Amino acid sequence: MLRCPGCPRAPGLRAMIPFIVRRLVITVFLLLVVSMITFAIFFLVPRLAGQNSYQLAVQYVGRNPTPAAVHAIERKLGFDQPLVVQYGRFVRGIVLGAHYDAGPDKTYCPPPCFGYSFRNQQPVWPMMLSDLPVTASLAFGAAVLWLVFGTAIGVLSALRRGTVFDRAAMGIALAGVSLPIFFTGLVALELFSFKWPIFPNVQYVGLTQNPLLWARNLILPWTTLAFLYAALYARLTRAGMLETMGEDYIRTARAKGLAERKVIVKHGLRAALTPIVTIFGMDLGLLLGGAVLTEFTFSMHGLGLFTVLAIQNNDLPEILGVVMLAAFFVVIANLIVDILYAVVDPRVRY
Amino acid sequence: MKRRRIFPFAAAGVAVALGLAACGGSSNKSAPQQKSSAYNAAINGVVNPSSHKGGTLTFDLSSVPDSTDMGNTYYAFMWNTVRLYSRALVTYKSVPGAAGNTIMPDLATSLGQVSSDGLTWTYHLKPNIKFEDGTTVTSQDVKYAVERTYAKDVLPNGPSYFKLLLKDPSYPGPYKDKTPGKMGLTSITTPDASTIVFHLAKPFSEFDYVAALPQTAPVPPAKDKGANYQLHPVSTGPYMFQSYQPDKQFVLVKNPNWDPATDPNRKQLVNKFVFNLNVNADTIDQNLFHNFAQVDMAGTGVQAAGRARVLSNPALKANADDALSGFLWFTYINTKVKPLDNVHCRRAVEYAADKTAYQTAYGGPVAGGDIASTVMPPTVTGYQKFDLYEATTKPHGDVAKAKQELSACGHASGFSTTMAYRSDRPKEKATATAEQQALSRVGIKLTLQGYPSGKYFTDFAGVPNFVHSHNLGLDIGGWAPDWPTGYGFLYYITAGPAISPAGNTNIEELNDPAVNSMFDKAVKTTDTAARNAIWSQIDRRVMSDAVILPGVYAKSLLYRNPNLTNVSLQQYYAMYDYATLGLK
Asked: Which residues 257-286 on chain B approach chain A with CB closer than 8 angstroms?
């Protein structure tokens, strides 16, 4: 990197600690607000629309519910309590844990306790934790692919602007952005899992269970997901590179005799990285909350599929839990992005 | 049943249920026909009979079980599946065809011995039947299992027949039971370790069908974990739980303490069953075609894309069965919403409806089913074919007769009403649109109103006050029985006492004293043939009342993986019999 005698140095990690602490405190308040809004949407709004607690309880009593059964569930799930009390119990569970009446005895749900699923009466937090590796595998693997290929294609397209390569790459990128995942995913499955069984029987296998099978079964979901994002990143990188490669300092670097590769990577790409880092943080954070369409298409039991089922079943503890977890990931991802800004761009101060 | 597939049971396609002994204990006169693979071969025969052992059999399911706990589940596919790891007092025969509706002893030595007043039913347990841990099953374990069904706050999903029929409806369930050993349900007595006696509040001649519910599968009290019992129910069947990840997968392995000599109904052939949950429905069909899985656990048939592929490919079609599912898709005609409170106006609807369009809306003859003319489908014991409104002879409707009925009810130029349907069910929407057009030919103007299926019965069509205030004269629905008799099918959709203020299933609000008294008479009639005749009489009376517009006797196109052995359609469950399957 060019040394600038008068330019400020990049801040050390120590200098950023107060900034990080402030952001973490804000994160807690943000998650509280998110939980309140989610609770209001799924519980308060139906009440305002006229649904009573009996009608809500009927959904969780199976078929031909008798009034006695409905009232029992109403009491068990706390629907007969004021909404403020129900919400208070939920928050208390996250902080202090909660006891649950499973029948013969009470079970203890340690903090963070997001309650018990209305549908299958299992604790929500362990269910989310067991789904997290699937989503994480999907998200990180695809992220590596789209970052590497997307930025590489974007750089090459920028350097070969107007050529056949540039036009072809951007055309494919446009297709990638336009085609929905449930289309590309199903086509990928049909071709590479069923018609030509290169990747037969795509099911999630744990990394520690069988690393090779884990990777093999994730190749189709990774490439499907990465295809969409790589397209976006290619276009973004190309635009950023075109802008930075036209700057005066690039001309100066070339004039000073620096190798072209150094000029492109160390000076051009680095400067163009800032918006890419921003977007990457957001994208990864959102994906960790669940790659809904990809998981649904490939029947992978991650947080995305968990979310869909929770909403379909109107299972409030599951909905609240996954929304808060997803919000947490987004907030933390943004925090990491902000920290990385300081590394990438020494002009950034906190 | 009001929602998708609870207890569908398939017929052989020919109505043979009349005269079939509902409580028969005799075995079939001839062994099931053994067949090689061909279209519909598994409906009346066993395809790929084999005693070959070994392998892992994979089931895929597009959703999740409501519970794997035998006392807490109410879906037909689960009642079929739990037979792999549990045994009830009595069970349905694992044979193809109409004989599959016959119940036979399972844990018990015989069907119930009923007292002369019809109030006491006694069962004796077979000796030395063991749980998976080697302990012997006792009558108290069966009693405890039934007691659990009263704990609706912990186990809310299963049916409530024991609470409805036995003498002690106020029993709070074993988790609030303070008596020693938690045996506080007084309406069940266990004079010794192998005898269990049920004391009914009123005679109920079909109690054996209630005893066939998986809720009578024994549960050892010391091993009961309430809501968490579903994670590992203690087995009495040929297989037992190895693992269960909720919403993802459960695995069954061989139960070493299952004795085949006591259980002619089941087989222990494969080494392992793997049940994959929440698999994309279209992927399931592909998995079946490519042998990544062997059974679609839901048993409701292939999806639209898969169906097109099966029917157009002779090799695939030879592995398919188009079976009656036991469901009737129909429309309720409400008797309290004017002018449908007049029977002639209701009959006008019956005559004017386009039954072919109804069938087409549900997918045609193969995917949808056969045009229906009765409330009871052919799969139900007691079914008799009749056709009061020319559904099968004039399937596009009889406009002239409809207009005559309209004149008789004082609305010669027609009337207006609202038709409710489940908005997230494309077939019901298509049906509503088709019938709106059909009925308009005689001046009956329908306003169509869709409601979400999850709340259809709890908040909308199943709430009489809502129906009245919103003028829902016609309401689309479907039903399958809890057990394959007229009572099991008809009671909750046509009996007056079944009307309830919410979650109502007698949506037409029929409260016909003649129908109600026929039900009362039937449940006291111990002679099977006489009882079956009453069901048919009820069916005819209900159709004469014109409170139900039958649509189609539903069918499902099932695909049987060619690697499966001993494949046959179990009539009661209306899907392949899971208790007999093996692998080549």
From this structure: 276, 278-280, 282-283, 286
Q: What share of chain A is helix, strand, coil (3-state, %, to 5)?
A: 70, 5, 25
Residues 314-353 of B with CB under 8 A from A: none
Task: Give per-residue pLDDT as tens, B420-455.
Answer: 999 989 999 999 999 999 999 999 999 999 998 877
Contact B153 A200 (CB under 8 A): no
Q: CB of B479 within 8 Å of any CB in chain A?
A: no
B261-316 pLDDT, tens digit per residue, is 999 999 999 999 999 999 999 899 999 999 999 999 999 999 989 999 999 999 99
Give the three-class secondary structure for B445.
strand
Q: Residues with Cβ < 8 Å from B159, sequence gap 6 or more?
A: A63, A64, B74, B149, B213, B215, B482
Long-range CB pairs of A62-66 (<8 Å, 24+ gap) are A62/B66, A62/B74, A62/B156, A62/B157, A62/B158, A63/B1, A63/B2, A63/B3, A63/B6, A63/B74, A63/B157, A63/B159, A64/B2, A64/B159, A64/B160, A64/B492, A64/B503, A64/B505, A65/B156, A65/B503, A66/B152, A66/B160, A66/B163
- pLDDT of B53 > 60? The answer is yes
The whole-model pTM stands at 0.87
Closest partner CB to A299 (pick from B278, B502, B503): B278
Q: Quick check: ipTM above 0.95?
A: no
Query: What does the block give as tokens for B231?
Result: 């994670």
Distance from CA of B563 to the nearest CA of A (A): 17
Residues of B in contact with A61 (CB under 8 A): 152, 156-157
Q: Which of residues 49-108 of B touch A (CB under 8 A)?
A: 64, 66-67, 74
The helix or strand, by DSSP H or E, that contains position A148, with its residue range, turns out to be helix A124-159
- pLDDT-derived band at B25 (thresholds 50, 70, 90) equals very low
